[in-house]
Amino acid sequence: MSTPRTGASARLRPMIPCLLLTTRFIMNWPTRSFQRAAAIFFSASVLLTACEDPNAVGLELPGSTPLTTEFKDLAVSASTIQQDSLPTTGRNHFLAGRLQDGALGTVTARTFLETKISGDSIPALFTGAQLDSVVLFFGFDYTYGPTTPAPRLDVYKLAAPFDERTTYNSSSSIPTSTALLTDAPAQLNRKQFVRQRVNPTSTTDTTTKRVAVSVNVVRLPLVKSGQSTAFTTALFTALNTPGFSQATLDNLLPGLALAPSANYKGGIVRFNRTSATRAVVYYRAGKTKQPEVLINRTYTIRYGSAAPASSTGQPDPNAPRYFTQVTTELGGPLAFLQSEADSVASSRTNGLTYLQEGTGIATKLYISGLKELSQQSNIVINRAELIIPVKPYANVQFAYPSQAFLYEVNKRNQVLVRDINNQSVDRVVQESGFSPVSSGNAAIVRLNDLSATNKYYSVLLTSYLQAYITNTLGPKPEGFVLTPSPRLLSTLVTVRANGDVAAVALGAANNLTLNRAVLDADNIKLRVYYSRL
């Protein structure tokens, strides 16, 4: 007669073989992050499923069926598509330039900027005002492509002001009239000398040294000292006339278009929102009490800069607007993309698909096996993770997008919508743990950068997949579009506190860049763990 097993050691003894198999399985996973996640999951699963001792008290009730956990990788087929009419108005960056790329062809970026008057004193308030120069400034923070030779840019005057009723996007344009500058070099390596403390942490040593620092501002003079054009003469005449107003400026300079010169294709400059971005009219004028003494003065025309906050903390509704137009001339197999409904299978692009912010280049995913999984009864999804490997060493000129989003689409790659609180919103996949049919909690597909040869995007789809197999999503999508260029930011994520994950994601989503990723499409998979009741 055998001795009865009692205590924790007796209950764990029959689990040891399963625990060893589980540990061996986990250690064969490719990354430590997968191993840690799997270890937590399997530890819980082992204690609840097949490795349990059925004779132990309280593990199951008489007549109940023990749970069984299964694991499956669902294959994903991928293709490259191109979305159009992406939101670019008022983003944290604007772009100008032209860049040729071996994989995606030629990308051209032009920016249209509204102009606004400032509170500076106009020359009409002083005596003997004389024009010195007019200079356009554009603060920048990144360049796609080489910085030498300097990019060549054109500046045009808009033919009419921005339309108050028009929503501008990456496909929009505004007619231009006079060319203010053509083929102007945009020097990106400017330096200036400043004095800095030799020991900035010392409270007694105040010695300084003269050092050269980078000036990340493109400077484009319309006229230099002693020069004039018909436009600058008319502008200064208006500034030197009492009653100068926004209406006066709209007649003279309703806005600017910043574009690459016709023959330039060496790079694209990413300009950022900074107070350095502005037009400055330099002039000399006398003092009120001593009109014969001329002193240097300036008048600023605003465009493209950060909107100043009002006393309520809200952005200035009168801040100048701007948007970037992005056009692509795709080459090779991707030249087939003529509309949003078109797609190019990864089999035609050497097993690769693409993501690129700004251009609308995105990857469409079709997950085979979802319908078969949903046809099985009594299924509970324990964990579902979409894993999207990045092709190593395939991204020379561009940084990787730090995040992307999944949109449900139909056969023509059109984003599905649903009505929430009498508002039509995009069906972007929601974060696991939130209602899959809600809005404002978009699942963030994050880049995992483990090494030069081990980069991948991933996102948990546990809640979404459970809703999919229980038919609680509404009409099911025909596929998903993975894109780093979100559509409507206001319904993407809801910021709950400064610095939270949603705030960081929303801040990154508001950047307009050309960051790009090349995906190893043949190895994309949806890894699913589920139990049968």
Description:
The chain has 533 residues and is mainly beta. The protein folds into 3 domains: 7-66; 74-83 and 340-532, no CATH class; 93-326, no CATH class. Helix content is 14%, strand content 38%. Strands 2, 3, 4, 5, 6, 9, 10, 11, 12, 13 and 14 form an 11-stranded antiparallel β-sheet that branches. Strands 1-17-24-19-22-23-18-26 form an 8-stranded antiparallel barrel. It is elongated. Mean pLDDT is 86; it is low at 1-63. This is DUF4270 domain-containing protein. InterPro entries: DUF4270. It holds the Pfam family DUF4270.
The major sheet is characterized as: 11 strands, antiparallel
Average the pLDDT over all residues and give the rounded result: 86
Fraction of helical residues: 10-25%
> Which blocks of ≥5 consecutive residues have pLDDT under 50?
1-63
Number of strands: 26
Topology:
Layout: H1 7-12, H2 16-27, H3 32-48, E1 68-82, E2 93-101, E3 105-114, E4 127-144, E5 152-158, E6 176-185, E7 191-197, E8 208-214, E9 217-223, H4 230-239, H5 246-252, E10 255-260, E11 266-272, E12 278-286, E13 294-302, E14 322-329, E15 344-345, E16 352-356, E17 361-367, H6 370-374, E18 379-389, E19 403-409, E20 417-420, E21 423-426, E22 445-451, E23 454-460, H7 462-469, E24 479-483, H8 501-509, E25 516-520, E26 525-532
Antiparallel strand pairs: 1-15, 1-17, 1-26, 2-3, 2-11, 3-10, 3-14, 4-9, 4-11, 4-12, 5-6, 5-10, 7-8, 12-13, 16-25, 17-24, 18-23, 18-26, 19-22, 19-24, 20-21, 22-23
InterPro entries: DUF4270 (IPR025366)
Pfam family, one: DUF4270
Protein name: DUF4270 domain-containing protein
